[in-house]
């Protein structure tokens, strides 16, 4: 038996060596069949994909924008520490990464096999697809890379605004539809004559090729006499706008919302919808049609949607008609500085809204409610046993507004008729959005600790149950949470700066810090990038920087 075992083992080793040799030979000669492919190159094959089933197809994981990944089985409070966890590499790209990276598991990539794929969009107007498991150092090559600019075009300049600088290409977080095999992105460019173009692209997730006859140039109009109008028609001037909020896909429609370059020039409040199958514009709504301003930017957060198909987002400072019609809506349709609920069925319609009683004063001093993004809570039960559908949001006034999505409160000059209002608990303005996990809402305002507010009998606690020991400066932090269902929960946040810091906390008690990237600074440091939110998938944490995605994982 011992002799037979040795023969079998020797034969097995020989077969294994031959298999490795054969795979290496094949790996050195294969490449993607996409004409836009940059190739993974080299004679060493990338490793087989780590088993994974998670897809991160949209901003903050889901259309509620909870910011929670409940399928993380590899990262735990026991192994996220400086001895076992740190930066494992950087995926180098050609510009700033302002949109959240996205992730698909087990994608069949032509010529290179099945991969876990990370998708990255840049302000240079490029989109990259990387093997998410082949990250070491800074030498990883993309599976494919494309430019969204047409021949003779370049990325937009910053339009005299320091919010997105020095160039603007793709600012918003894209959205992926795996069934359609497409990643949808909105990109801006300009030509040699100084003309600007916004286009919606649908790119093949396996090759980067344009799909569905795209791209589509975005050029809506809408009835109104507001800023930028002519003869009773609002005209979308591409030089005046940037698609800063993330994209939303719902029921086969891609929804876009538009902000300005700072508060420069004549602009209003656009929401534009497109068919996910044809990329053709399907509808448009302007929420400040007879006034000015009212851009939607939300520090890069995305519109949210509930199970009933209603869409929620928060508009920046702009005209609000304090004269209301019989339904309680602004008489001229101008809803600047509003938290809005819009139908996703066509035509797009304002269904409900909330704006604070001092909305005019806030807009006059650039105190946007819309500096922060929306969070929709899973259903909660109040003290009477009634199921509540709630939304949470905050802006530059540092107030936590909790809204009943079935009755948002509209406008009153004497009181805010809303579900719950919490003042004095945020230490500064909100430039980001709160996140949710397991009955708790997490906030990271400017010049404040990250704070946990539990939900009890349908109400947020009026003071935090725990908070971080450090204070996050401008622009605060937008936390993300990883967990295995309700176990092993970790809150992740990026502290901005020339050298940024990735922090990991026990989500059940924020006083317990598990890790930060300053603990092994020589190994783990990376450059900061405003408004970025970490994305956690399959044992790795991905963070956008000015020229890369920094990747953290188990060492």
Structural account:
There is one protein chain. The protein has one domain: Methanol Dehydrogenase, Chain A (8 Propeller). The chain is built from three helices and 44 strands. Strands 1, 37, 38, 39, 40 and 41 form a six-stranded mixed sheet that branches. Strand 4 and strand 5 (126-131) form a beta hairpin. The protein is globular. Mean pLDDT is 92; it is low at 1-46.
Write the layout of secondary structure elements.
Elements: H1 2-27, E1 68-69, E2 85-92, E3 102-109, E4 113-121, E5 126-131, E6 144-147, E7 153-157, E8 167-168, E9 175-177, E10 182-191, E11 196-204, E12 216-217, E13 221-223, E14 229-230, E15 233-235, E16 241-242, E17 248-250, E18 253-257, E19 259-260, E20 270-275, E21 281-286, E22 304-305, E23 310-314, E24 339-343, E25 350-354, H2 359-364, E26 375-376, E27 380-381, E28 387-388, E29 390-393, E30 400-404, E31 420-422, E32 435-437, E33 440-443, E34 451-456, E35 459-460, E36 466-467, E37 480-484, E38 487-495, E39 499-506, E40 513-516, H3 521-524, E41 526-527, E42 535-537, E43 540-544, E44 548-554
For the termini, the CA-CA separation is: 40 Å
The dominant shape is globular
The percentage helix is under 10%
**Total helical elements:** 3
CATH topology: Methanol Dehydrogenase, Chain A
The CATH architecture classification is 8 Propeller
CATH class descriptor: Mainly Beta
Stretches where pLDDT is under 50 for at least 5 consecutive residues are: 1-46
Classified in CATH, the superfamily is Quinoprotein alcohol dehydrogenase-like superfamily
| β-sheet strand percentage | 35-45%
Give the overall average pLDDT.
Answer: 92
The number of strands is 44
Query: Roughly how many Å is the radius of gyration?
Result: 24 Å
Tally of structural domains: 1
* Biggest β-sheet description: 6 strands, mixed
Q: Helices and strands: which structural class? A: mainly beta
